[in-house]
Write a structure and sequence with these properties.
Layout: E1 9-13, E2 16-21, H1 24-37, E3 45-49, E4 54-58, E5 65-72, E6 75-76, H2 80-87, H3 93-98, E7 102-106, E8 115-116, E9 128-130, H4 139-143, H5 152-164, E10 180-184, E11 192-193, H6 195-199, E12 209-215, E13 227-230, H7 231-235, E14 241-250, E15 261-262, E16 292-294, E17 298-300, E18 302-304, E19 323-324, E20 327-328, E21 334-344, E22 350-360, E23 367-370, E24 375-382, E25 389-390, E26 398-400, H8 411-426, E27 430-431, H9 439-452, E28 460-461, E29 463-464, E30 476-485, H10 490-493, H11 523-532, H12 535-544, E31 548-554, E32 560-564, E33 569-571, E34 580-586, H13 587-598
Parallel strand pairs: 1-4, 8-9, 11-27, 12-26, 13-24
Antiparallel strand pairs: 1-2, 3-4, 5-6, 5-7, 5-9, 10-14, 12-30, 13-26, 14-22, 15-18, 16-21, 17-20, 18-19, 21-22, 23-24, 23-30, 25-29, 28-30, 31-32, 31-34, 32-33
Helix pairs in contact: 8-9
């Protein structure tokens, strides 16, 4: 037993010491007995922390509490008679709590509990039994089928993917102006569901589709995690979605009585973008719904007063100078104006919101994931006639590389493939709730259904190569899996730059897609080019295309000099020599030399002839 920190056992109520007790275990038992009899509130939780030798009583709000069936003398207090009464609705859940059959524990009291998974596992030592073994999982893990068949890290991965899945997030999406939103065109309920999925009515907000999946390679295109899609399925609407983005602006007021105005900016405005940019705006300076827009098109025309006071008086001294502050469609985006609304801010200034929609059809580079953390990027969209097909003429929608299964131990994925195939044959959903049946029993159930419908009992089928027409030597495992389309789409991430803006400090290209930036070519990328012996490409990427600067370097002392344009001579500020040479270096290197100088160290640049 751990050494106790203090001799006196203090009692803390909601974190505050209220006094101490002589026998903590008896005291805790007394409080629990009173709670179960209904003498004190069922909201009270009590725990004896042995290492600290303290009793903690919690009654405050915001605690996460979970129901457990009380076990006494190696038996569950929830008898068969009570369970039957509950099923017949003669009693309710509240009755069980009031009569000390079920109680809620918080995180601290769970430390004093020894919980059995099922009635069959109960021994004399156990204090509680899980209401349902499923409740050890949270909301997300319970929406995935067969979670007990997968390794734990895959659950964490699926939990993050489900947040990124496209589906029907709200039925009034066409009235909402979200900053960005994705709506899947034909969301489906999964063929393999769980108790949690059904009871939470998640099928009303479905976020995926049932794909016919074959476990097979395809001419090396689905190496690693890549997947191959059937073009005919994509053309019929598989994984198709709509992307919504909202642009908004406000007529701000400034001190001095100046304010922004929504209108088509006149040609005299500072920063005027040219007539073609404003061609789609109506007279009030705002674009109309159902207009096709592309990058660079103005959505909301706006003129703003100049930033600095001295600019406010124009050349004639009469007209006030204005600058263009319009909202422009971001680079790389296009679509159709879906809706426009006018509203007011609390400060009674006008606000305009423009929602743009764009169709997103699955293409190479888009991401899909199953409910077992099996994610993949589309490597190829194959024409229907080149895909493998079965004897019945069934062509898979998606081809998954079989190597992704054993290493990741996502056996739930295989079980779902089989279970959903059986569900499709039977014409009814199958249950994939955790711990509901042993894996072997489930397999036998699915095998019977598949055999009754003339299929191989373990889901394997003779497949024919669509390119050559010959049957494959091995049978391929084919079935149905519920896949989510994730919102990482290549059309939103495409970034390219030839020439453009540079940072003032380093003279290197700006970063980020929004600022038309370049892609970082780091040290490791440099190593690759060095290893390939492509040094000239290295020079082009890291010097010519980046921050090449021509500087004058003194041949005598190695300092950086400058050109005196008045005297038409090159000057070294250190030794007043006129013997300087032009050298091409990276501007960032020149910056480094300046920083070294600021530390009172004189760097010298040595040159060879």
């Amino acid at each position: 037993m751990a050494k106790k920190i203090s001799e006196k056992c203090y009692v803390h109520l909601n974190g505050r010491a209220m006094g101490y007790v002589a026998d903590p275990l008896a005291y805790v038992e007394e409080v629990r007995a009173a709670r179960r009899k209904g003498v004190i509130s069922g909201e009270v939780n009590v725990a004896y922390l042995e290492k600290l030798n303290e009793v903690h009583i919690n009654t405050d709000r915001g605690r996460v509490r979970k129901p457990y069936v009380i076990a006494e003398g190696g038996k569950s207090k929830l008898t068969k008679e009570l369970a039957e009464k509950l099923e017949k609705k003669e009693i309710d859940f509240g009755y069980l709590i009031r009569n000390g059959i079920i109680e809620f524990l918080d995180a601290e009291e769970e430390e004093n509990a020894f919980v059995a998974m099922t009635d069959a596992d109960v021994t004399e030592k156990h204090t509680h039994i899980e209401v349902d073994p499923v409740s050890i999982f949270g909301f997300t893990a319970n929406t995935a089928p067969f979670p007990e068949m997968n390794s734990a890290p895959r659950h964490l991965m699926f939990a993050s993917y489900i947040k990124q899945a496209q589906g029907l997030y709200a039925t009034n999406f066409n009235l909402r102006f979200e900053s960005r939103a994705y709506i899947l065109f034909y969301p489906q309920a999964p063929l393999v569901t769980t108790t949690a999925y059904e009871s939470l009515h998640l099928d009303r907000h479905a976020s995926g589709q049932n794909f016919v999946v074959a476990l097979s390679t395809y001419y090396g295109y689905n190496m690693q995690d890549a997947v191959v899609l059937n073009k005919a399925a994509v053309d019929r609407g598989l994984g198709r979605s709509m992307f919504y983005k909202t642009y908004s602006d406000e007529e701000r007021r400034y001190p001095g009585g100046q304010k922004d105005i929504f209108k088509i900016p006149p040609a005299t405005t500072e920063g005027y973008l040219g007539e073609h940019a404003y061609s789609k705006l109506s007279e009030d300076g705002v674009i109309e719904p159902e207009m096709n827009v592309e990058e660079g098109d103005v959505l909301i025309g706006k003129v703003a007063p100049p930033r600095f006071l001295e600019e406010s008086i124009g050349a004639g001294g009469l007209e006030e100078k204005t600058r263009d502050d319009s909202v422009v469609l971001k680079p790389g985006e296009n679509g159709v104006v879906d809706d426009v609304i006018f509203t007011e801010s609390p400060g009674a200034t006008r606000i305009v919101k423009v929602r743009v929609r764009g169709l997103r059809v699955p293409e190479s580079g888009d991401k899909f994931g199953s409910r077992h953390g099996q994610k993949g990027v589309v490597a190829l969209v194959v024409p229907h006639e080149d895909m493998p097909f079965s004897e019945q003429g069934v062509v898979p929608d998606l081809m998954l590389n079989p190597h992704g299964i054993p290493g990741r131990m996502t056996f739930g994925h295989l079980l779902e493939t089989l279970g959903a195939k059986a569900a499709a044959m039977k014409g009814a959903k199958t249950d994939g709730t955790a711990f509901s049946q042993k894996g072997s029993e489930r397999l036998e159930d699915y095998a019977k259904i598949l055999e009754a419908h003339g299929f191989d009992k373990y889901g394997e089928e003779v497949m024919y190569d669509g390119v050559t027409g010959r049957p494959f030597k091995a049978k391929l495992f084919q079935g149905i899996v519920y896949y989510n389309r994730l919102h990482h789409m290549v059309s939103n991430k495409m970034q390219v730059r030839s020439r453009g803006t540079v940072q003032i400090l380093t003279h290197q290209p700006t970063e980020g897609k929004a600022r038309l930036g370049g892609l970082r070519f780091g040290e490791m990328e440099r190593d690759v080019l060095v290893a390939y012996g492509a040094s000239l490409l290295l020079k082009e990427r890291m010097l010519d295309q980046s921050d090449k600067a021509t500087v004058l370097i003194c041949k005598e002392c190695g300092s950086i000099g400058y050109r005196d344009y008045a005297k038409r001579v090159d000057v070294c500020p250190l030794c007043n020599s006129n013997k300087l040479a032009e050298v091409e270096i990276s501007y960032a290197f020149k910056l480094l030399l300046d920083e070294i100088k600021s530390l009172h160290i004189r760097p010298q640049v040595g040159m060879e002839e």
